[in-house]
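Quick one before lunch.
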Amino acid sequence: MIIGVDYYPEQCDRTLWEHDIITMAQTGVKVVRLGEFSWSRLEPREGDYDFEWLDEIMKLCASAGLGIIMGIPTNCPPLWLYESYPDIVRIGEDGKPVQTGVRGHRCINSPVFIQHARRITTQIVRRYNANRSIVAWQIDNELEAYPCTCPACRDKFRAWLLDKYADVEMINKAFGNVVWSGEYNNASQIQPPTAYPKAWQNPALCLEWYRFCNDSIINYVKEIAITIRRECPKAVLTTNTCFSSNTPDFYRLFGELDFVSYDNYPPIRMPEDKQQPYSHAFYLDLMRGVREQKFWVMEQLSGPTGSWSPMSPAPQPGQLKGYSLQAFAHGADAVIHFRWRTALTGAEMFWHGIFDHSGKPNRRFTEFSDLCRIAGRLGMLEHTEIVSDIALLYSPESSYALDIQPQTAGFSYMEQLRRFHYAFSKYGANIDIVYPGTDLSKYKLVVAPSLFVNKRAVTENLYRFVINGGTLVLTCRTGVKDEHNNCIMDDLPTVFKELVGAEISEYDPIGDIKRTMRDFSGSEYPCLEWCDILQPTSARAYSEYTDGFYTGCPAVTMNRYCSGVTYYVGTISTQEFYDGFASNLMTQTKIPKLKGLPQGVEVTTRTNGKEEFIFFFNNSEETAEISLPKSMYSLISATGKDHLVLAPFETDIVRK
Ligand code: GAL
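Model of the beta-D-galactopyranose complex:
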């Protein structure tokens, strides 16, 4: 378990470097990320390179025994590049050039930009390709599925569509452009759907634009990856990612790279409503599922956040350490903290690192030091993995399509996934979050909320899973769209009708109106946002509506299909419903449950095939007590324990 820090030597005085690097090593830091935004220091003028400062800091790292993650600094091209080649600037959604002097302000489709990005990459890698301290290379920073609308991007988008559809006639047909006289006569009429609110644009065009933006970043990453590998064939490559309004398709992006990295900023303030799914374990599980492998946290919360937003509260005692151990529990191999020193200058000066502006040891540094000590004791977890019986399916395309056409007030694709995740985690289950097309045969239970945009391969995958004896959960707004993001002319849930054993005779997009349902055991739950009115063909009702014009109609159904079972949840409900439903599903599928876990306590199990190690993380502001079924060895205290008392945000790890 590796602890690291993000360090920006170019942003602080040189006299601090040696002291910083030695302190890092003494504290237990193992790796440092360098270089990420430093192009203007590496190449102050075109073709005039200065690596002397980077050589120096890298030497200091090497002599302190620190590994290096080398950043490829293409996110922030220097201003001289814009002056010489003004066309490389990104054009924002408003059609205006993004102001230089910020970051991410380059068009990644610009051939001129790519040429220069490859040039600086070649220089860096050629210089350091034999450097044994480098453990990985990070390409760029937080690549998003950007809507750049410069002339090069427009041309490329048109060519991309023609390549896919052969001619504009086919595009017109696929997009249904006859609506509002939107038919193209020629490709030059095709415009990216950015200048106007997405709600007014053709959803088919929007989805293709999203796919094009993804292809653009993937091509860009490929270009840089090829450039790095040409100079250093054994280079280990990644890019750091996050969720945003332009979240990329992680599955495709990381297909080009060696491992996944995630920037992890969990919530500091606990929600007042304890039922709200707030745990970042959801995102950590999702990141582990991207390549179905362990991943790195490349940036980890270390202090109050803020700068472009009002500052957050300071991380509470225990959160800094607790959230890093939570990331380990969910499959991170390394947690790199953002950042060692808080910036004194620049737009991010109030996004705090471990040290405040003074640079003096503080409460957070003490906690960080303790984390490093603990990480040093966890060597025996190195070859352990997380094995899950339950998978949640995350579809980037359905997520995007539901973002651009939110079905009713309050309806959220991600929120549904999070509620299911939170429910299963209350029973101590390991949960994978994976691509809908992946091999599902190792799971007992698969939950696929709102698969809105259908792909034949995914549909077949889900049928196969149930035919072979799996238990599947589908929810409302499944099977609505074809792969062009157009509605399918059939009764819902269209391609899934047989599996579900029911048809939806009508739906009621209730938005903020509240309805109620009662399940087979007599428990009542609210129905929110959406109500599908189900007519079973072979399914049985699991719960029925108790009001509205569909009183007595099934809201949730259960259908046996071949050797498996499909549940269909035709509505959205509160967390209590998902908790009870998850418990029943786990009983039905014989997935072990931990009962009576205190509120907020998260349990994750890692195994090496012979032994199991259980993480107990108290993700709450109250002390939690847990009785273990027998005495177990604690890796944290190096003693046997049959009872755990966890302070807020404290973790214990026991060997079963
Ligand atoms: C991340 C980004 C970092 C830094 C951090 C805190 O999104 O990768 O460079 O900006 O946020 O603001």
